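Work Package 4 report. The design task specified in the project plan requires that, given a folded chain encoded as structure tokens, an amino acid be chosen for each position. We show below one input record used in the internal validation round.
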């Protein structure tokens, strides 16, 4: 088969490699759509290395059809259209036993410990099948939408900790694909006002087109003034940092109301340790939460939200490339001119 192979940091090559072979308990999936995640870009440039092997095939957001099912696999058959939750929790560690399987101490993932989806085929090890990581796509759901169920699941996992409720004012910092998905899920949860801050005009317009109530260009406008005007001087109920930019952490903390909830949703590049005005948290009694990956239940929720049209993820795809143009696709994803970039083998 052909695949994009990450040989080392900054060296990604489209080349021929061996098609994975499966045993009787495994599946072979023909990739139909594989989207590029911000994390893939950080892996490419060596800014994220945990679980990454060289050489290997990265990529963890995908959907496809089953090309081959092992004889012992009864839940799926050749031709099934599926999407995959790429994170496999161990099931037995402290976190798995306490409702936090997404931060399992022994978690392994497709695109990290197992070869990923920037390839024509992906081998699905048995545990992914038996533990509920594989999901059938509804008949009218596209493969691209199925691939985007993965990042949407991460957004759902992040928002579970924020308890967004009817009437909330939510500020989202960053209108990349993740920021826009946060906006859509916040709306679906009943947020009455979603304010999106984004310096890139194309992304800001996209957020507006997808239903942001107010968009702010933080270069020329004050996010804080806008939020205070909208909330009778109180501040936002919820603030979600959907971009890992060290310069905006304090700005994000400063637009929350007292008792507001803040999600540090975006990962920062290794070594970036922005100064934090701790008094904003202390005196305002802010609740600051993190978010890592997804739980298996989130993927089920994501697929049903997409199927019900509550969250229109597919419209986020601005660019589609054949797999052989993987480097061009990565450049496009990094350029800021795209929202979501999808590779099709
Ligand atoms: Zn991702
Ligand atoms: Zn575990």
């Amino acid at each position: 088969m052909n695949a994009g192979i990450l040989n080392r940091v900054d060296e990604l090559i489209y080349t021929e490699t061996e098609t994975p072979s499966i045993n009787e308990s495994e599946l072979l999936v023909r990739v139909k759509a594989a989207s590029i995640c911000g994390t893939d870009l950080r892996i490419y440039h060596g800014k994220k290395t945990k679980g990454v092997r060289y050489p290997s095939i990265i990529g963890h957001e995908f959907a496809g059809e089953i090309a081959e099912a092992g004889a012992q696999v009864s839940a799926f058959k050749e031709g099934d259209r599926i999407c995959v939750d790429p994170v496999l929790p161990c099931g037995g560690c402290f976190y798995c036993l306490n409702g936090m399987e997404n931060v399992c101490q022994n978690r392994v993932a497709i695109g990290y410990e197992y070869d990923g989806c920037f390839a024509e085929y992906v081998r699905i090890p048995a545990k992914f099948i038996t533990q509920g990581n594989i999901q059938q796509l509804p008949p009218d759901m596209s493969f691209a939408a199925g691939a985007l169920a993965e990042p949407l699941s991460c957004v759902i996992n992040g928002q579970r900790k924020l308890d967004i409720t009817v009437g909330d004012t939510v500020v989202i910092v960053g209108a990349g694909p993740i920021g826009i998905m946060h906006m859509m899920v916040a709306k679906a949860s009943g947020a009455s006002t979603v304010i999106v801050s984004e310096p890139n005009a194309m992304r800001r317009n996209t957020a507006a087109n997808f239903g942001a109530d107010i968009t702010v260009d933080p270069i020329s406008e004050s996010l804080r003034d806008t939020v205070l005007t909208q909330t009778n001087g109180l501040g936002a109920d919820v603030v979600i940092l959907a971009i890992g930019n060290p310069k905006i952490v304090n700005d994000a903390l400063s637009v929350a109301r007292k008792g507001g909830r803040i999600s540090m949703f975006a990962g920062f590049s290794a070594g970036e340790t922005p100064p934090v005005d701790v008094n904003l948290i202390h005196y305002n009694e802010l609740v600051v939460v993190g978010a890592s990956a997804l739980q298996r239940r989130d993927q089920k929720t994501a697929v049903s939200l997409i199927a019900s049209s509550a969250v229109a993820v597919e419209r986020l795809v601005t660019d589609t490339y054949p797999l052989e143009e993987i480097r061009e696709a990565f450049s496009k994803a990094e350029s800021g001119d795209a929202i979501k970039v999808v590779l099709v083998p």
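The chain is about 30% helix and 25% strand. Validation will be extended to a larger panel in the next phase.
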